[in-house]
Write a structure and sequence with these properties.
The chain is built from 18 helices and 22 strands. Helices cover about 35% and strands about 20% of the residues. It is α+β, with helices and mostly antiparallel strands. Strands 1-6-7-8-3 form a five-stranded mixed sheet, sandwiched between helices. A five-stranded mixed sheet has the order 12-14-15-9-13. A four-stranded mixed sheet has the order 18-20-21-22, covered by helices on one side.
Length: about 600
Amino acid sequence: MSERAPSLPRTTHTLTVRYSGGEERRGPVTMGQANMIRCMLRDEPAHINIHDVWPVPEGTRTDAALDALRALVVRHEALRTTFPHAPGSAPAEQVVASKGEFTVTVVDHTPEDFSGDLAPHAEYAESLARQARVHRFRLDRDFALRVSLITVDGAPFFVALAASHALTDVSALSVLKEEWLSLLAGEELPPLTSLAPLDLAAEEATPAGLRRSEASLRHWARIIRTGPQAMFAEPGAEGTETRVPRLTLRSRRAARALALAAERTGGLPSTVLLTAWCALVAHRAGQTACVAAVPTSNRYHPRLARSVNTVSQDALLSLDLRVDSFDALLRKAWGAALNAYRHSQFDALGLWEMIDRTTFERGSRFARDVVFNDVSTLPSTVADAAVAPTSDTESESEGGADGPELELSWGPEQVLPTRVLTFVYETDPVVHLATWADPALFRRDEAEDFLTGLVRLLEATATADVPMTSLTEVTGVRPARRGPEWRRVDGSWVSPPLVAETLGKALRGLPVHVVADAPDENGNTPALTAFVAAGDAPLTPAEAHTALMDALPGHPGVLAPRRYVIVQDPPSEAGRSSAWLRQQILVEGTGRDRDVT
């Protein structure tokens, strides 16, 4: 049996597929489209485009595969949509065509290339789909999908595709794959009941839709104003993008424990898993709350559940861990998750304007450190289901037909703007998930211990309530180690020396000393004060604050001082706060408003 990936294709050629059908329409973009368009114009295409791999049933002819694709294009308006706009501007309108064409690249191989096990061939199809992600989609003219049909002696074997995130998301691709396979099986697709993008845009523009958006902004503002500015603020956490390897867990042990824990507590398995994951993330980060983006959860409404559209707007979850036990946390998690889901439709531009205002006032930079994406209720992609992990780490059992007892395997790297990203693909008969953890914070053995600790926590909760104070003992995962200079300031972990260093660099080397207020009864430091020796150069608190805010991205251990005190010269004992307090003050203020002289 061959276990190698296919060699170079024998031939490659392009087919043009013409379609006609459906209604020609135009109208405003949806909130989700505006959100993803903003990301597509800002981010590298390989980071924001998405991809999928579809298996082709044996015996399928090429013309049947193309006919099924054509039927999907006619059926779903998103696949016939473009976004006309002037150069240098962001699209505000979408246009649905009633006829047009798209191309399919046929990549043909010899039978010898595709003999043996499925896994290497699925990996090859996955690699073609990933390669197609690296090119930017032209929003004003490009078809929503870049499709490659992998054939063997002319017979279709896989479809590998990249997709514009302005028109589809992971859920939408799953719906398309499911319907495509149904068409190839000769089944008739049911009438559409989910909202098309233009219909969703119209609903969002109603008074009720606008009220929902405003409520969502208030929900986000509360969390960004009061929660930790970054979940992972600790030594080693720096930068805004990191190259991260994938770590995959497949475990029957975890699935059995999850089912038992759900039965014991009466919670949904998805909520139990989310709660355990949040508890462990916050425990490892040394935080009293877990703030996480939950992207797919805004499809909770039946009219969006199977919509071929991009509704990729984060549901922002804030779960307070200040409870005695796991069961108490689970009870809070259900309400917190529902609250997040309800507030996951918003005006993206309004959201970022609010974030900029709120963080400037607070003196922080909101970091989307933690992402939990549970797609286990969607059809799994062939890349997830067929690629057998080759475990070079821990494997407690080779497992049977239903999967291994506990298997960890490492995969390719990806550049991500997060510290910990988790995708849940399956919860029964195995828990199958993948995690990307910042290697600056999690060595490989620590990342493996984290996922093993998650399994141990599920097993402990399967039989009894678990005290929150015992998470280290139960899971083997220890909280972050921070030196004595680290303080909790305004709900965030902050290093005052790092604040002074960052502010000094932002002010081109001016001497800076940062003083922390005395901790309150909960161990929180209410605020910081920065002393700056400006010399003969004029400097205002507003200028100091603006300079620091510009330097904040990539420094999660830095929170802006609540007050800036400008003096002329540093004291001889520049490391002593009392010496700075004796200096003559030139000007002082918050930097957020008018200076106080």
